[in-house]
Amino acid sequence: MVFDCAKGNRYPTAAMKKPDDVTVLNLRNMSKDLVGKLKAAAALQHKSLTAYVGDLLQDHVQDLEKKGLLPKGK
Prior knowledge:
It contains 2 helices and 2 strands, in the order ββαα. Strands 1-2 form a two-stranded antiparallel ribbon. The longest helix has 18 residues. The model has no long low-confidence stretch (mean pLDDT 85).
């Protein structure tokens, strides 16, 4: 079993690669205060920072799609 620290996912050792439908997103120049608050918020929900921020972004995109501001995804 391999643990991907960036995603918090476990993959079978035989696979040794991440799923094809994921990519890396680097956020730079974020204030330490904001990152600390996001980490605390993620911990309150028993999620990794990656999962928490990903859920926030997914919810935001879904809201924009519902409002017709973005085309609906797959």
